[in-house]
Specification:
13 helices; 15 strands; nine-stranded mixed β-sheet; 19% strand; alpha/beta; two-stranded parallel ribbon; Rossmann fold
Length: 330
């Protein structure tokens, strides 16, 4: 689909952007790759890393409507990864989350439609499911903006999204914390022994976006099924693969991850490795005010407590597949 096409990745200098572009170059032969981000240092590093004439780098912020429109000229496919992703940052400065994750996303949606983009995929998070913090709330509204835009009667752009939990070894996640604690000879601190977490390598997140590129219809949200482990098993697996005897210590409860709500499962299509949450296909207010759906709501959504549960050995195997863990073990 991307052969001889121009693609654009907002927030493209991050971990996802680098991994996604690597995957695209292996599978497709794009005409041009537009990287749109705020960080000139990361753009410089990426320019040196790929050393490829296909790249076009734009310094800009998704909050800047004019910059987004300028960068998106003649683009065929857009992958919207730019966001404020850290929960504390959004919690302490919620208006900044609104400006980037909601208003910024709307700028990208507007530009995609105006510039005749073939398909735009927005990247969302498990925290948008039953959101309890500012980051999750802003991402949930970004999803709603995408779905509403997909209903535009004259739009030729396909708008869809993906949703996934914390990527393993991403910035601020628990695995690099465990590695640092192991190297420092400190106890591994876990929230609660029996709390569960999805285990999603970055390569799997990229696979999900490529699946959405091929299968996503307008208004869809695609979710990758992923295994989970308890926090105790995850910590124990880290201790085992580093062959150390650090203590594992509980520090306090945090909620499990949720990827699909009970209500969304009603309208979902299940694939062997994915869920497709279908968006509304029409702007019909009767669906909300005068009509109902004679179906039973599932008892629970898809979350890290009811997905495939990895053993300690299974968790070790998945951890050892991460390039960051392989490097740390050296």
């Amino acid at each position: 689909m991307l052969n001889d096409k121009t693609i654009m990745v907002t927030g493209g200098t991050g971990s996802f952007g680098n991994a996604f572009i690597e995957a695209v170059l292996k599978k497709y032969a794009p005409k041009k790759i537009v990287i749109f981000s705020r960080d000139e240092k990361k753009q410089h590093d990426m320019r040196l890393k790929f050393n490829n004439s296909l790249f076009r780098f734009f310094i800009g912020d998704v909050r800047d409507r004019d910059a987004v429109f300028q960068a998106m000229k003649e683009v065929d496919y857009v992958f919207h990864a730019a966001a404020l992703k850290q929960v504390p940052s959004c919690e302490f400065f919620p208006i900044e989350a609104v400006k980037t994750n909601i208003l910024g996303a709307n700028n990208v949606l507007d530009a995609a439609e105006a510039c005749g983009v073939k398909k735009m995929i927005v990247l969302s998070t498990d925290k948008a499911v039953y959101p309890i913090n500012a980051m999750g709330m802003s991402k949930a509204l970004m999803e709603k903006l995408m779905i509403a835009r997909s209903l535009a009667p004259r739009s030729e752009t396909v708008f869809c999204g993906v949703r996934y939990g914390n990527v393993m070894y991403s910035r601020g996640s628990v695995i690099p914390l465990f590695v640092d604690q192991i190297k420092a000879g400190k106890p591994l601190t876990v929230t609660n022994y029996q709390m569960t977490r999805f285990l999603l390598p970055l390569a799997t997140a990229v696979q999900l976006v490529l699946f959405a590129l091929e299968k996503g219809q307008s208004g869809d949200i695609l979710v990758k099924k992923a295994p989970a482990s308890t926090m105790k098993d995850l910590a124990q697996a880290c201790v085992n693969i580093f062959r150390v005897k650090n203590e594992i210590k509980e520090v306090g409860i945090r909620e499990g991850e949720k990827l699909v709500t009970q209500e969304e499962l009603i309208a979902s299509e299940e694939f062997p490795e994915f869920y497709r949450i279908k968006g509304n296909r029409k702007m019909d207010y009767d669906e909300y005010f005068t009509k109902g759906h004679a179906v039973n709501i599932p008892k629970e959504g898809y979350n890290s407590a009811n997905t495939e549960r990895l053993t300690v050995a299974g968790t070790e195997k998945l951890l050892l597949s991460l390039p960051e863990i392989q490097k740390a073990l050296q």
